[in-house]
Amino acid sequence: MPRPPITKARPYTRRRGAFAGRRFTTEREYRDALAQQKGFRSWADEQRAPRPIRTTAEFERLSEAEQYALERAYEAKAIMLRTGASLEDASAQADTTPNNVLGRAGTALRRDARGRYYPTPADHLFRRMRLLTARGHIAVDVTDSRTASSIAQYENAVREFYRGRPGALRPFRGRTIRVGKIAYPLITDHATLRRIGYVDPPFNDLYAHVG
């Protein structure tokens, strides 16, 4: 059973380990102590420290909550790139925090002389995404933002097809998307899409999760 949040009314005393017998009265106090044990000045510094996911194995070790935090960080980076929003504004729009974005997508951000963060045009962040194939949607592991962008554009076009706008698929006719060593033909045939859509409706989001 998860530990309830630490408050002054509900303090927490560690029974074992480095902090055995120490009494904590706030969650931040406890988190700061854990971070300092790892060599960070504070919990906030630990959150900001880069911890990019680079491999399938690293991704699959994440909890469902950590996968969601990763997805939100990537969304904030995409908002910054798409709209020019600041790190703070993009984080709020993506329902996350600047510290989470810096920790999970910080390798795709740069900082100028005034201290403002801005996104790099391309990155090599690990993403597990959904891609429509003749067998329905599958999960593919992508480490190149250009490939990720192509998948997102295609999946958006598929959604538009199911919403009654078949012309959205026209730019993708005859195209493939290569992920690793495999080239996936992009499905634009209407009859095939109707068949797939009946047994495998389009997903509401692009990112696939370990479930």
What would your notes on this structure say?
The protein has 211 residues and is α+β, with helices and mostly antiparallel strands. It has three domains: 12-48, no CATH class; 56-119, no CATH class; 127-199, no CATH class. The protein has helices spanning 27-37, 43-48, 56-60, 64-83, 87-93, 98-105, 145-162, 190-199, and strands at 12-13, 23-24, 109-111, 117-119, 127-133, 136-142, 176-179, 182-185. A hairpin with a 2-residue loop joins strand 7 (176-179) and strand 8 (182-185). Helix 4 packs across helix 5 (87-93) and helix 4 (64-83) packs across helix 6 (98-105). It is elongated and about 65 Å long.
Quick structural overview:
This protein has 211 residues and is α+β, with helices and mostly antiparallel strands.
Please tag this protein with its features.
two-stranded antiparallel sheet; 211 residues; single chain; 3 domains
User: What coarse outline follows from CA principal-axis ratios?
Assistant: elongated
C-alpha end-to-end distance: 20 Å
Query: What is the percentage of strand-forming residues?
Result: 15-25%
Order of helices and strands: EEHHHHHHEEEEHEEH
Helix segment tally: 8
What Rg is obtained from the alpha carbons, in whole angstroms? 21 Å
Mean pLDDT: 89
Given helix and strand content, the structural type is: alpha+beta
Estimate the helix proportion, in percent: 40-55%
Strand order of the largest sheet: 1-2
